[in-house]
From TrEMBL:
Keywords: NADP, Oxidoreductase. Signal peptide: none annotated. Residues 19-300 form the NADP-dependent oxidoreductase domain. It comes from Dipodomys ordii (Ord's kangaroo rat). Substrate binds at residue 117. It holds the Pfam family Aldo_ket_red. The gene is LOC105980416. The active site is at residue 55. This is Aldo-keto reductase family 1 member C13-like isoform X2. Coiled coil: none annotated.
Amino acid sequence: MNSKHSYVTLNDGHLIPALGFGTYTPEEVPKSKTLEATKLAIDAGFRHIDTAYAYQVEEEVGQAIRNKIEEGTVKREDIFLTSKLWCTFFRPDLVQSSLERSLANLKLDYVDLYLMHYPVPMKQGDDLFPTDEHGKSILDTVDFCATWEAMEKCKDAGLAKSIGVSNFNHRQLEQILNKPGLKHKPVCNQVECHPYLNQGKLLDFCKSKDIVLVAYGALGTQRYKRWVDQSSPVLLNDPVLGALAKKYNRSAALIAIRYQVQRGVVTLAQSFKEQEMKENLQVFGFQLSLEDMKMIDGLNRNFRYLPAELNISV
């Protein structure tokens, strides 16, 4: 993989670009925008694309990648593509067929990274959010360690080059790490992470186990109405980030991304605007001082933008 990116080495030897492009698209935004945005992101220089079955845009993301391959802009091996196993497919006999469904949507032969999207098995079926008559989620009794064994088989079959998890806490990670007969440990844990929720303890735990932390919502999320309380504080309006943006002659968004990259956190940034995409890729062109990193550490308030009971990665 050749690009202007920095890379982080995963515990299975594969390289992941330190900055990725997120493709979650809310219901009110036409899927065609995801197709165009992903193409723009690749043109801007992004080589790490993050999607998921639950986002329901795999077809558009795959088409964008294939179009850029056909144009000669990139080769398949230049792109690091992530998708995710949704909670309704956690039964071990459904895992590989779910990945194969994602690959059919993408019209690609493999993904670079396949994640368990959330550590809560839900009732199997085509309904992404199965609920009872009271609107409460219908859960399943699957042991996610059994799901992990099926994930390992997907890696062995070459359908996913690397496998990991998303939205796991350290106790849930330990359940997999301590599982008898573990063949492949998770290469990463993708979680909501930004200056208001810096995940310091989880980051330290992951580093101690050679697991990369991947941050979504790194800019305080896109504040989609379905998931985010519209009265919550706007991260990028924080006066500390604003002062640092002025000091370094960068945007507040770039300061927030640089903060993560400097901590060794792989960071996902999402935008539908070409100029913002290009700006975000400038993250490797400067460095924050130790004092300024500590100042941003001080912003932590363990504040989640997304509901903890079902954090959909955006």
